Amino acid sequence: MNHYLNNSELIIATANYWNVIHGRNADEVTQDLEGRQIMRVLGKNIAWLLKMKEASKGLVEEPSTEQKVTTNFIR
């Protein structure tokens, strides 16, 4: 999945570990303290990225897109 996001030239928000939370139902999910922390950090980082993007409008020029060049290693 990470390769797809990179290939699409997307900005990826990160957390402090894998972006997962575990549980078979809502009660079990609330008991996953590590998963809940990861989701909080991820949410804060997503919000920060969105605020930075909005604040930089008109100040920082967005990069131009380029036609993708592909290489076929079979010759």
What tags apply to this protein structure?
mainly alpha, 47% helix, single chain, 75 residues
Describe the structure.
By secondary structure, this protein is an all-alpha fold. The protein has one domain. It is built from 3 helices and no strands. It is flat. The two termini are 28 Å apart.
What's the structural blueprint in terms of helices and strands?
Layout: H1 2-7, H2 26-31, H3 33-55
Largest sheet entry: none
| Strand content range | under 5%
Q: Give the radius of gyration.
A: 18 Å
- Tell me how many strands there are: 0
Distance between the termini: 28 Å
Portion of residues within helices: 40-55%
Number of helices: 3
Global mean pLDDT: 91
**Poorly predicted parts:** none
Overall outline: flat
**Element-level helix/strand string:** HHH
- What structural class should be given to the helix and strand makeup? mainly alpha
Care to give the gist of this entry?
The chain is built from 3 helices and no strands. The protein is flat, with a radius of gyration of 18 Å.
